């Protein structure tokens, strides 16, 4: 069962919207049965200052959970997909704080990164979602 970018993207989104580490672990186990590897990592901070850190966290999580290896191409695919997801959020979050979770999923050549977060100041938050995809050979 190799591929299907839609299923991999849905898995990344589900990882990003998981409410707890326990829920993440349970969902990762379910995904393994579908031959999908997954990871998630939290983030937060001021949007423009946090972009680099968010991308780095995604790459580290992908490597930690063996979604990608140590190759430049695979690490770059994670960084690119994360950046793509963030580009969908930046117009809404420019100059504001954001905090949330990055979900990553891979099966075969397909890698998806989902960013789910609250955007705003103090308790006045909006919600934003971004999704990126890369094909890795």
UniProtKB/TrEMBL annotation:
Q: What keyword terms does UniProt attach to this protein?
A: Activator, RNA-binding, Transcription, Transcription regulation
The entry lists its GO molecular-function terms as:
RNA binding
Its subunit composition reads:
Homohexamer.
Q: Which family does it belong to?
A: Belongs to the HutP family.
Q: What does this protein do?
A: Antiterminator that binds to cis-acting regulatory sequences on the mRNA in the presence of histidine, thereby suppressing transcription termination and activating the hut operon for histidine utilization.
Q: What is this protein called?
A: Hut operon positive regulatory protein
């Amino acid at each position: 069962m190799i591929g299907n970018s839609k299923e991999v993207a849905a898995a990344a989104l589900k990882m990003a919207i998981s409410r707890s580490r326990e829920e993440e672990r349970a969902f990762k186990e379910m995904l393994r049965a579908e031959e999908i590897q997954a990871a998630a990592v939290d983030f937060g901070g001021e949007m423009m200052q946090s972009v680099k850190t968010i991308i780095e966290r995604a790459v580290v999580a992908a490597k930690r959970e063996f979604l990608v290896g140590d190759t430049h191409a695979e690490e770059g695919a994670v960084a690119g997909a994360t950046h793509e997801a963030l580009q969908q959020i930046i117009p809404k979050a420019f100059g504001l704080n954001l905090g949330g979770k990055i979900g990553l999923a891979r099966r075969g050549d397909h890698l998806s990164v989902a960013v789910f977060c609250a955007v705003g100041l103090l308790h006045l938050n909006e919600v934003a979602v971004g999704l990126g995809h890369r094909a890795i050979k």
